[in-house]
Amino acid sequence: MHLIVLFGLPGVGKLTVAERLAKATGFKLFHNHLVVDTLLAAFEFGSPPFVELRENFWLSVFDRAARDSSAGLIFTFAPEATVRDTFIPELQRTVSARGGRVSFVELTCPLDILRARIDAPSRQRGGKLVSVELFDQLRAAGAFDRPLMPKPDLVIDTSIMAPEQAASTIAAKLLAG
Question: Among 26, 30, 33, 146, which residue carries the largest CB count within 10 Å?
Answer without folding.
Answer: 30
